[in-house]
Design brief:
The complex is a heterodimer of chains A (152) and B (493).
Chain A: E1 2-5, E2 8-15, E3 18-21, E4 24-33, E5 36-42, E6 45-46, E7 49-54, E8 57-62, E9 65-70, E10 85-87, E11 92-97, E12 104-105, E13 110-116, E14 119-124, E15 129-134, E16 141-142, E17 147-151
Antiparallel strand pairs in A: 1-2, 1-9, 2-3, 3-4, 4-5, 5-6, 7-8, 8-9, 10-17, 11-13, 11-16, 12-15, 13-14, 15-17
Chain B: E1 4-7, H1 11-23, E2 27-32, H2 40-45, E3 48-50, H3 63-73, E4 77-79, H4 89-97, E5 101-102, H5 107-114, H6 116-125, H7 141-151, E6 155-159, E7 169-171, H8 177-192, E8 197-201, E9 207-215, E10 221-233, E11 236-242, H9 249-265, E12 270-278, E13 284-290, H10 297-304, H11 308-316, H12 323-326, E14 335-342, E15 354-355, E16 358-360, E17 367-371, E18 378-379, E19 386-394, H13 397-410, E20 412-414, H14 420-428, H15 430-434, H16 441-444, H17 455-466, E21 477-480
Parallel strand pairs in B: 1-2, 1-4, 2-3, 4-5
Antiparallel strand pairs in B: 6-7, 6-8, 9-10, 9-12, 10-11, 11-14, 12-13, 14-19, 15-18, 16-20, 17-19
Classes of the chains: A mainly beta (152), B alpha+beta (493).
Amino acid sequence: MKVTLGDETREVRIESGAAVIGDRRVEFSATGAGERIETLRVGGEPVAVRIVRDRDRVFVWCSGEAFEFRRSGARAPRPGESAGGLSAPMPGRIRRVVASEGSRVARGDVILILEAMKMEHAIRATADGVVARICHSEGDLVDAGTALAEIR
Amino acid sequence: MIRRLLIANRGEIAVRVARTAAEMGIEPVAVHSEADAGSFHVRRIGRAVSLGAGSPRETYLSIPRILAAARESGADAIHPGYGFLSESAELARAVEEAGIVWVGPPPAAIEQMGDKVSARRRAKRAGVPVVPGTNGAESSDQELLRKSKELGFPLLVKPSAGGGGKGMAVVENAAALPAAIEQSRRVAEAAFGDGHVYLEKLLERPRHVEFQVFGDRQGNVVHLCERECSVQRRHQKVVEETPSAALDARLRGAMGRAAAEVARGVGYVGAGTVEFLLDEKRNFYFLEMNTRLQVEHPITEETLGIDLVRAQLEVAAGEALPSSWRAGKLVPRGHAIELRLYAEDPETFLPRSGRILAWETPKGPGLRVDAGVAEGSEVGLDYDPLLAKLIAFAEDRPAAIARARRALEEWVVLGVETNHDLLRAVLASGEFESGDYSVDLVSHLPARERPKAPDAAWVAAALAFSGPAPRAGAASPAVAEPWDASTGWRAGE
């Protein structure tokens, strides 16, 4: 199966006594099954892990770090950085539209200001280009992930 | 004597206040918005009154609803916690007029310190230096522009009302000032209903050091030493410690006396905090006073071995401060560090929401966790994203840092992104370890790359995906810790 972590997708397969991760074979032993793993040894060493599965996501706590794996091959777009477009990082209200459609902007320029959590957040261009579309007007309420503007 | 205490707040601080109340034989009563009915503080406290449906403004920030909740529950006192209405003179006054005990300073003191321009005037009058800036008499943008040339750049535009860094802007030159003033006014108007702003000279690499102060109705005012709060991001504190590596006994004494003078000048009663900036030449300047309990109050409690909430409740009931406090016999011991765990995007610091699927707090000697969530808690975007505070206490600073690092390794949080990596990076930085740091510490941290997952994490993920799919919505946690294993290893399974 294909498992994705951040930017990285690997083909992962469980065989008897080993996991094949990409082109590497990692020996392991475990008691329990699925996410209900009781104990885990990898390469002979015991590992403290905590695993929670939530449908197509698996959260793993390992060596003091949290990792969120996804089963689908596609990497979930991070808020505010979907290709070419800008989306709302959190629900809020469009406070001010700074750039106008058709104007040329440079990476880092403020396109509009979103008010959320009683703070103003500048939504900035993620690349140089031309503002092709501003999707909302001042005062509009938007949900997290809503497209705000498009830059080409 | 207080018998039933309404806690007009939510999250970790509501739970923390309720704990002390219970120890004093006072019955705590929680409040909650409709959306919060099943939240951790309500379950933990037990007795609870609904504030109805609606936004924070219509619930936790609604004075009529808080008063109605107090009446409905038969509470004879109200503790506001921090944030929300804790610095509302209007609520303080309404509570007192209703014949209910207000666990906080007198309304007039809140007003005098709530407006930062008037607070600066008060501090000056008490003989305490303030950061050079405007005095609030300049109302028009033109006047502010003229004054800015006298002060010089860089400078800060700050709203007179409010706090938490909201609406604050750093301005590098005169050309950028009008836009900054406009933005600051707009934020202040939206957040605090008051668009007044003032200018303050920006100190180079200052430290943010605050002093806990405490007053009683008998006229005693004492200081309870400092908290070093320079580790900040977006002008908000992330890690605090006490004592501060920047202070020696002489400077501590001078700043502590100044803090107590500021509080005495406004007839302060209860717990308060006087914030200072300390420059590289060890000059200190009054910044502002917070007329409430601070988020980071536990580090003071740990090093002094006291309970600030207990003292708040005793003073509110008319008792004098403990005689040992008045006699200056409280001596700090050891070192305490607080880490604030926020639900936030590790890169942008923006708040994140989600459900906490796994939650195991660190344990062991010298640790305290003040949490506002538990496994299964929903973290929404309507409220402060603070999940919990970890306080590590040890005999000296290196031991406290080592303890905090160990505790952070143990802290299991799954389901919601947090600033866990940032906290690790702060504790790992040589600058923090040296104790010689200022408010720009976070900006010096090495770029935080997403940690690479070890093989074991990939194996665990593969195993979890291979198993039967969990029932919809029922994420069932699995624990696999070698030291918990009751069964032997089954090699090669």
